[in-house]
Design a protein that fits this description.
Blueprint (H helix, E strand, L loop, with lengths): L3 H43 L20 H24 L23 H29 L3 H4 L11
Protein name: Protein fucoxanthin chlorophyll a c protein
Main location: plastid
GO biological process, one term: photosynthesis, light harvesting
């Protein structure tokens, strides 16, 4: 049987993982359609080739060739640094007071509303994980960009 300490440690480990995955999913839920919407206009404006995949879809992160390969490598290294920074906290090897997901970065000084913000972050993160999964499934089966499948979300009201 696990002791109370081991149970708390396991829950903290899972909460930390959920928060990290939630944050990534929230960035992906916003970034995926934005990349499909802005890549063409920005590449034309700057005179660069478009980086979208066939049919105007966002490129896969598994395609490490080209400019996105360097970005993916940089993102992986940055993630590894953050992961190493929080690993000791979650394992209980540092002083107490650590809150899962707290990177000690609060430029808007929202710490006073921390409890409400924690709950909102978990709820929005769970929804974002479902949304990104839905976008991936949609693009896989239909083969068209997310922004073309749901134009009502990506065009001003009255223009679609």
């Amino acid at each position: 049987m696990a002791t109370d300490y081991e149970k708390r440690r396991k829950v903290m480990w899972m909460r930390e993982a959920e928060i990290k995955h939630s944050r990534i999913a929230m960035m992906a839920a916003a970034g995926w359609p934005i990349s499909e919407l802005l890549d063409g206009p920005l590449s034309r404006l700057l005179g660069l080739p478009t980086l979208l995949a066939d049919g105007g879809r966002a490129p896969s992160l598994f395609a490490l060739s080209g400019p996105q390969g360097g970005f993916v490598l940089l993102a992986m290294l940055s993630t590894a640094v953050l992961e190493l920074k929080t690993l000791d906290n979650v394992a209980g090897l540092t002083p107490t007071g650590y809150v899962a997901g707290d990177l000690k970065w609060d430029p808007l000084e929202l710490r006073s509303k921390r409890k409400d913000m924690d709950l909102a972050e978990i709820k929005h993160g769970r929804l974002a994980m479902l949304a990104v999964t839905g976008m991936a499934v949609q693009e896989f089966f239909w083969g068209t960009p997310v922004v073309e499948q749901t134009p009502q979300f990506f065009k001003p009201i009255g223009f679609y």
